[in-house]
Design goal:
By secondary structure, the protein is α/β, with parallel strands linked by helices. The protein contains 11 helices and 9 strands.
Length: about 290
């Protein structure tokens, strides 16, 4: 499937990587980037993430067949409201947000008002680096992309959004917005919170004066803490009910682990680490990641 015009709203890591992949694979005749800063106009073109870039969102989305919202979650509703008068009839709108329930239920109603179709999606790919300079056309290759249709979703639009992500190398699955948010609270959002908490707990309490005491284990465990603070603030707030519940469960398990350590329970601790290793090794093999060393 080749698109006539794709408009990417927000040309950072995710939007820039999508644009690069679309262009490199010849999947769109025209990729237009809508950005808010003049500096990004040049950066996006230099990175070959777009054919053209503009500060004029109205012109950027005019006659677009596909519009991809790559803005922070908290900005999506306002951004789409501004775009509504300029969307063509039948245009498909999707997003890359990490939280789906609130986004999907708000944006599908707005898009319908303009005669367009909104389909939520979440490509589970990213980096601790930010901005279009960090973009790469291979970002989505092998990544899972969750598409979250509802009862209101236009079937043709849902298939088209799935095809977009498949065409840039992703593997798509369908989930309801609610099921998606419950699952990523554990698998994606909780790890980011824990990485940030570990950094603040460790480096904020004197260890920073002895940086050599933090080696590769600390570096690898906390890599994702270097992500965008604003983005993760918005995610934590948008998915707060699921995340708070998951944090409660995790806290109880952490207290149980603390008790095992205090008791010096060798048998239980061995079982704890063996189970974790087996589960992770099995997940790596099943998910197609590199085999554990």
């Amino acid at each position: 499937m080749r698109w006539n015009k794709v408009s990417i709203i927000g040309v950072g890591l995710l939007g820039g990587s999508l644009g690069q992949a679309l262009i490199a694979r010849g999947l769109a005749r025209q990729v237009v980037g809508c950005v808010r800063r003049k500096a990004t106009l040049t950066q996006a073109k230099r990175a070959r993430a777009v054919h053209t870039a503009t500060l004029d969102f109205a012109a950027g989305v005019a006659e677009a067949d596909l519009i991809v919202l790559c803005t922070p979650i908290a900005q999506m509703r306002h951004t789409l409201q501004q775009l509504l008068p300029h969307l063509k009839e039948g245009a498909i709108v999707t997003d890359v947000g990490s939280v789906k329930s609130s986004v999907v239920h708000e944006l599908e109603i707005l898009a319908a008002e303009a005669g367009a179709h909104f389909v939520g999606s979440h490509p589970m790919a990213g980096s601790d680096k930010m901005g279009v300079k960090a973009a790469r056309p291979s970002l989505y290759e092998g990544a899972v992309c969750v598409v979250t249709p509802t009862k209101r979703t236009n079937r043709r639009a849902a298939r088209a959004v799935e095809q977009v992500w498949k065409s840039v190398g992703a593997r798509t699955i369908r989930l309801s917005p609610e099921a998606h948010d419950q699952l990523v609270a554990r698998s994606s959002h909780l790890p980011h919170l824990l990485a940030a908490l570990l950094v603040n707990h460790t480096l904020g309490k004197g260890i920073a004066r002895q940086p050599l005491l933090c080696a590769t284990g600390f570096r690898d465990t906390t890599r994702i803490a270097s992500g965008s603070p604003e983005m993760w603030r918005d995610i934590a707030i948008a998915n707060r009910a699921n995340l708070a519940r998951t944090l409660g469960e995790f806290t109880r398990e952490l207290r149980a682990l603390q008790k095992l350590i205090q008791q010096g329970n060798e048998q239980a601790l061995t079982k704890f680490f063996e189970q974790a290793k087996a589960l992770r090794d099995g997940w790596c093999n099943k998910a197609g990641y590199a085999s554990p060393e």
